[in-house]
Amino acid sequence: MTGKNGNSYTIKLIILLVLLLSLLPCHNYIGENKPKSISVKDYDSISTYFGPKDDLSEQLIKLINLSEKNIYGAFYSLRLPKVASALIDAKNRGVNVRLVMDKGRTNSRRSKYALLKKYISINTINQPRGLMHNKFCVFDNKVIWTGSYNPTYNGTYYNNNNVVVINSEVLAKDFIGAFHRISGSENEIDDRRRTTEEDIAVFFSKKDNCKQKIIQLLNSAETSICFASFIFTDKDIAKVIISKHNKGIKITGVMEKGMDSFWNMFSFFRHVGINVKWDRNYSHRMHHKVFLIDKRIIITGSFNPTFSAHKVNWENIIVIQDVELAGQFMDEIKNL
Q1: How far apart are CA 322 and CA 317, in angstroms?
Q2: What is the CATH number of domain 40-196?
């Protein structure tokens, strides 16, 4: 009996030791692979989103929620309750939130200006002519959000829009400088040097000549120009496109049918044989402001090729040289 009990005790002890040893590596593994908390700085260097197939509001809210230090936002129109709530929540947890908005849109139906101004510092831009037409944000002096998207219900769920998100402290300085110029706090601008980023450049109306930069880049086209334009009335930019078409450069374009008028360049393009078509978002808006050059250069932002964008509005364009990203924009335009 004693020998049998002894063997039984030994077996139980071995089993217990095996169980304990099996647990130790598991704990080490869990500790080494514990997910790190995500922050704004962990965002990819550059990414793009297209609405309405991508929920642009959710991407914007994600960045707002990840912010820890500050948010600079320039919004032509902000009507989406959940975006306003996210900005207020950020302010309440200690993030320095500063906004600039177009005065004419703050009194519009469903604008969240009245709610936001109770909690957040907002400058409104009121001009006799022209708009504060930007749609950009900077998060924690690091991540930039810009494109054609206004955080409104239609802008989120129905209109065709694009947003690029760029992780760059260098470019963030330019956007923050633009914010200060727009809001009138020019004493806070650091203009000691022109900030640049490899393969990416940003330009702001009233400081840079956005129209001339677009013309310069269009003139550099060697094989193709593709564009998607909400409204296109600028004759100088149209002349460059027509000139390139006459030289054999492949031109394709999509324009918003709802903005058809005598001044719109659609009929001029069609008259000379350029392959331009109306968008197929019949009940809502094709809101892009995009040029693609030689399938590698992207021009996007808030700037429509119009007199107002060039002469009187606050606008921005961002120029990106990236073949893969240009391919994503090309696919988007093909499906419009």
Answers
A1: 16
A2: 3.30.870.10
